[in-house]
Each structure stands twice: as C-alpha cells, then as structure tokens.
Amino acid sequence: MMAAKVDSNSNICGDTGPMTVHFLGNLLTFHVRSAATGDKFTLIENRTAPGQGAPLHRQADDEAFYVLEGQYEFFLDGDWHLKGAGEAVHIVPGTVHAFRNPGKTDARMLIINSPGSHHEAFFVDVGDKAEFRQTAFSPIAPPDIPAIVASGLRNHIEILPPAA
Fold first, then answer.
1. Quick one: 38 exposed, middle or buried, by C-beta within 10 A (0-12, 13-18, 19+)?
2. DSSP assignment of 78-106, as one string?
3. What parts of the sequence cross the membrane (predicted)?
C-alpha cells in the first residue's frame, strides 16, 4: 500500500497543488484535485458572493454540497430549497440543479465531485485563476455564454436555460 503524500506548505494530499478559480461570483479552491485521487473525486471549498451561484445544469457525475457558512438555495425537483450551515445536499447523476447565495454576505460550502476531472477541467477552462484561498472577489464580467456551454459539453456538463 502506498502512503499518501502530504505537502506541508499547503496541507494538501496528492501530487498536484491546490488552486483557486473565480467563476460567476464563486471562488472555488480545489483542496484535493482529481489527479491526486486517480480521478475518484475532487474536494472544493466554494465561497459565493451575495446573489451569485451556479447556472442550471446537469451532469452524469455524483456531486455533494455541505454548507459551512451562510445559506444557499438549491434548485432541485423543479423548486428552490434553502439550506444552511451544517446541511448537505447530494445530487444524483442526471439531476437538473443549480445553487445561489440568497444572503447579503458571502456564503461558503464544500463541494465533492465524483469523478473529479470533469468539473475541475470545466472550471480551469472557463474560470479566471485567482490567488490560492483568495477571499475578495474580482469584478464579475459579463459571462461568455457560448464558451461556457461549449466547455460544459466538452466536460460532460450540460448548461441549461435559467429556471423560471
């Protein structure tokens, strides 16, 4: 059995270092990257600005969210569901879903994607590289919807039109 590698500078296991990406008002810090787990999963800490979130989408991967601070609204089963600190949501593959921060301050949650490479590649492709563990949001430019949709398709994520 191989022992896990620990990077003492970042407290991260694995052969790849951590990274933070800014995408649509989300600062996504990849603490455990897909290459470090043989693509079994990624572990992401997500900080979401007030009023921001993720567009409606679905994928063939498992996804789980655990709220650390603040509140998130999750779109599931055709309706929005409010979740607060200490609550979790599991997204079954193929489920149409989205999330947003309805609060007036930043919200934080952990995200696990399995396998991990699809979401990681998507965010690297469409996001802006940020400082590791950056907490201040860069200005949010208008999104390039065609590029986001195309990257989603390349990475097995189907971006859908907004919910009513």
1. exposed
2. TEEEEEETT-EEEE-TT--EEEE--SSS-
3. none
Q: Write out the two tokens for 20.
A: 């933070």
Over residues 56-66, the pLDDT tens digits come to 999 999 999 99
Euclidean distance between CA atoms 97 and 91, whole angstroms:
8
Sketch the domain layout of the chain as residue ranges.
Answer: 15-159
CATH topology of domain 15-159: Jelly Rolls (2.60.120)
CA distance 108 to 134: 13
Task: Say what the pLDDT of residue 164 is.
Answer: 53
Strands 42-48 and 26-32: antiparallel
pLDDT at residue number 132: 75
CB atoms within 10 A of CB 54: 21
Q: What is the pLDDT of residue 143?
A: 87
